[in-house]
Design a protein that fits this description.
Layout: H1 19-50, H2 69-86, H3 88-96, H4 107-112, H5 119-141, H6 144-167, H7 170-175, H8 177-218, H9 221-224, E1 225-227, E2 233-235, E3 239-241, E4 244-245, H10 246-282
Helix pairs in contact: 2-3, 2-8, 3-8, 5-8, 5-10, 6-8
């Protein structure tokens, strides 16, 4: 056969759409969004920069101390006690207001003076009054539970502190400093409370000692002379030794028993009240039952 052979049809698959062009189109579509985000970022930064930064809060000023009448009385009585100690005329004028004789009557002399006829009884009652008032003052200003705890903690802390010092380790000594500062603060609070009671005691002590001296000094020699159990007599206004009169020693002895009795009794009452108050607050509430009562 002399005819030309026809070319065979190609077995290759039909042309597919170009993938690269579609990816380019997608990338071009996404690029504007990234540019928009980049353009929005400076706007947000400028907006945040325009906002004023929050100012730091100023520390609250502590409230001014309130006026306490009790604190004023403590300082006033303490000041009077110091003044009376060094100024004899002022001391005698204040004590003279209580009454020293029948010609100079006063409230305390009318109560326990007995016309200067029973001077030993007058001194005993004056010592009891002095110790009662001072015991009340100490009992009012002292927190006995806190004082006992501070005393116990101080003794325990000293042992630990001595062991740390003996060990020679600085880290152990440094670790005890916060506890030492706390204990020092508590000890100062207890001491200040005791000083408050001491101000009342100091004033009353000088006042009553001066009053007893004026009452005995204004009594006659017969009333000043008292008989002892051995049959001898002494004059209360006479000096025993170093210028100290008899009445000073006897009055000092009269104040010891009432002081021990009143302080122990008032402390016992304070602790009983503290125990009863804490027991009532710490007592668990009873279990509530249903509205219909127990089953």
């Amino acid at each position: 056969m002399s005819g030309r052979s026809k070319p065979l049809p190609s077995t290759s698959s039909p042309e597919e759409p170009p993938v690269d062009e579609e990816e380019d189109e997608e990338s071009t579509d996404e690029e504007p969004s990234e540019e928009e985000e980049e353009s929005d970022a400076p706007e947000e930064e400028t907006a945040s920069a325009e906002k004023p930064a929050p100012t730091a809060a100023k520390p609250a000023r502590p409230p001014p101390p309130t006026f306490k009448l009790s604190t004023f009385l403590y300082f006033f009585l303490g000041f009077l006690g110091i003044w009376m100690l060094f100024d004899t005329s002022f001391r005698n004028s204040i004590a003279g207001l209580l009454g020293t004789s029948d010609s100079n009557p006063g409230p305390l002399y009318s109560l326990i003076g007995f016309h200067s006829e029973y001077l030993l009884l007058t001194m005993a009652l004056a010592g009891a009054i002095e110790m009662l008032v001072t015991s009340l003052a100490y009992n009012y200003t002292t927190d006995w539970i806190k004082a006992a705890k501070v005393q116990k903690w101080s003794s325990a802390f000293r042992k630990v502190q001595m062991e740390a010092i003996r060990s020679g380790k600085k880290n152990r000594i440094a670790a005890l400093k916060p506890y030492q500062e706390r204990l020092t603060k508590l000890s100062a609070e207890v001491s200040i409370a005791q000083f408050k009671g001491m101000a009342i005691t100091y004033f009353l002590l000088i006042l009553l000692y001066s009053w007893i001296g004026l009452v005995i000094g204004n009594a006659n020699a017969v009333n000043q002379t008292v008989a002892l159990g051995t049959g001898s007599t002494i004059n209360l206004a006479h000096a025993v030794a170093f210028g100290i009169p008899w009445w000073f020693l006897i009055f000092s002895l009269y104040t010891v028993p009432p002081s021990l009795v009143f302080r122990r009794f008032l402390k016992h009452l304070w602790l009983r009240r503290f125990e009863a108050r804490n027991r009532s607050t710490s007592m668990p509430l009873p279990a509530t039952e249903g509205a219909g009562g127990p089953a």
